[in-house]
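can u pls check wat happens w/ LCLUPRNS
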Amino acid sequence: MTKRNDYISWDDYFMGLALLSSKRSKDPSSQVGACIVDSRSNRILSVGYNGLPRFCSDDEYPWTREGDSMETKYFYVVHAELNAILNCRGANLEESRLYTTLFPCNECAKAIIQSGMKQIVYLSDKYSDTDIVKASKRMLTSAGVEFYRFETDIDCLNLNFK
Ligand SMILES: Nc1ccn([C@H]2C[C@H](O)[C@@H](COP(=O)(O)O)O2)c(=O)n1
Ligand SMILES: [Zn+2]
């Protein structure tokens, strides 16, 4: 028997974990997932998805996008990237790499920079025209955090439980 050759790459594996994490999101319009990796050892440090803080019920808080600010999700949802950082529970994130299914906002960019991460690999940049993402890119560039779009040769990964 010879070695399998159709195994997935490290990048596919980590972005796959970010995508799988996004499936836990309750947000009806955008499900975002993130995975933080030690780039030297390829060890997974943390994962996260966009959701409400602990003890804030998914059923009681709003999921709408528009209307009275107090009744939209934006005041309450913790972004996937920040959740991944907070889920690290004190692990050292210096020199680590973030895989995220959506380009980080300005607030997450601040946390990414302050935690010492050095690279971001993202899948979608659907809000690239917004000031939030422009401000994010400005800070990441000033801080020397590299960011590049995810590239792969495969279209999908199948998980079959049966
Ligand atoms: N980089 C990002 C950007 C946004 N999110 C979260 C915040 C919301 O739950 C959702 C965006 O909702 P939309 O305005 O597209 O309806 O995604 C995040 O986790 N990370
Ligand atoms: Zn964010």
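The longest helix spans residues 10-22.
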